[in-house]
Amino acid sequence: MFNGERHDLDRLDRIFREEHGRVVAALTRYLGSIDLAEDAASEACVVALETWPRDGIPPNPGGWLTTTARRRAIDRLRRESTRTSKEGEAHMLLELHGTDGPTPDESSIEDDRLRMVFTCCHPALAPAAQVALTLKVLGGLSTAEVAAAFLVEEATMAKRLTRTKGKIAVARIPYEVPGDAALPARLTAVLTTIYLIFNEGYLPGGSTQETGDAVRPDLTGEAIRLARLVVELMPDEPEAAGLLALMLLTEARRAARVEDGRLVTLADQDRSLWDRELIAEGHDLVRRCLRRNAPGPFQIQAAINAVHTDAPRAERTDWAQIVALYDQLYAVSPTPVVGLNRAVAQAEVAGPEAGLAAIDAVHGIESLDCYHPLHATRAELLRRNGDADGARAAYERALDLATNPAERAHLSERLSSLEML
Asked: Mind listing the pLDDT tens digit of every residue in the chain (421 residues)?
């Protein structure tokens, strides 16, 4: 039972976040409406908050929430005096399946989530809307958290999400995995969205304001599961395998990333804590991608991470190879963020002054002024170059922008240590 303590509430919150995507995806299959599915899932969570502290958490929390949400949806539809045709169709479906049907097995839940990903990433929706909706529906983020990820007001994001779901309904976008002919055109949006879900879990931004989490393994795990499903669906698509490899190699380092609430940089991580099974799987996927000789952004990023995880010690890292890979990545994805990351690698090869010059030479670098890694990188290179005053200003700017607690702790420590120089 629960004592109403903070850790009990945190445990419930984690369960709700972990199960949210499964429940909403399963309900959408029955209801035909994301809005109705989300409302029913929210009501089920309220019921759980009332009963689980008294009765205990059920053996299958996701099944319990799905069944409860279906019953709540039926009750709501029965109470309404008028319905749209879609709601009436949902009502008939629910009556047909019944309120006490068997709990969906894991395979059907996985299929539902994959259908939901392709629905949220339909080409009729704007790319930003695809990402926002997937984070909200499958990632379990609140509207406030999605708004923080996009650096907009909560009310603005709420309107965007409403419009996006409305467009799905009006355009009658099907809740399904598209046929083979349509898959390639949809793949980039799906892979990008899955990677953004992973990043929100690996380095949470908005969600940390309420929970204080430095890492959200529920989201990283969800992203990896979805990527595995896409690879299974499209085994001959190298970018899908590349994304899975990238996430596995990144996730493999998670246990070493945070110590005493502080971010640990790659160079300082205890590599004995890295997950060797995930690294081996990631390396195998990278080799398979290389054999196909059809490089794309995710595959190249995975190769960069493979070089990092291949080094037994930080000083053994092959930085020249990493610079070459970033050159290749910039050729296919010439973004300021890629240019910034290449500059970091260049600094390891040629020194901090060369790294700073490389940052200044990045086309469009000014667009990253609100991107705290830019200022954190400048601070580190200025520090190594002996410019304590410049480093201090850059650290302070990075701190103003960073929201992840582990990153903030790391930046604060680096800023404080300047006093000793």
From this structure: 555 555 666 778 778 877 888 888 888 887 878 888 888 988 999 999 898 888 888 988 888 999 999 888 888 877 764 555 555 555 545 444 444 444 445 445 557 877 888 888 888 888 888 888 888 887 777 888 788 767 688 999 999 999 999 898 888 888 887 887 777 778 888 898 889 889 878 876 644 444 445 677 877 887 898 898 888 878 889 999 999 999 999 999 999 999 988 999 999 999 999 999 999 999 999 999 999 999 999 999 999 999 999 999 999 999 999 999 999 999 999 999 999 999 999 999 999 999 999 999 999 999 999 999 999 999 999 999 999 999 999 999 999 999 888 999 999 999 999 876 6
Maximal C-alpha separation, the chain: 73
- Which residues have a Cβ under 8 Å from the Cβ of 147 and sit 6 or more positions away? 153, 154, 156, 157, 158, 206
| HSE-CB of 302 using CA atoms within 13 angstroms | 30
Tokens 């991107």 locate to 371
The domain limits of the chain are 1-98, 106-204+218-235
| Phi, psi angles (nearest 5°) of residue 19 | -95, -15
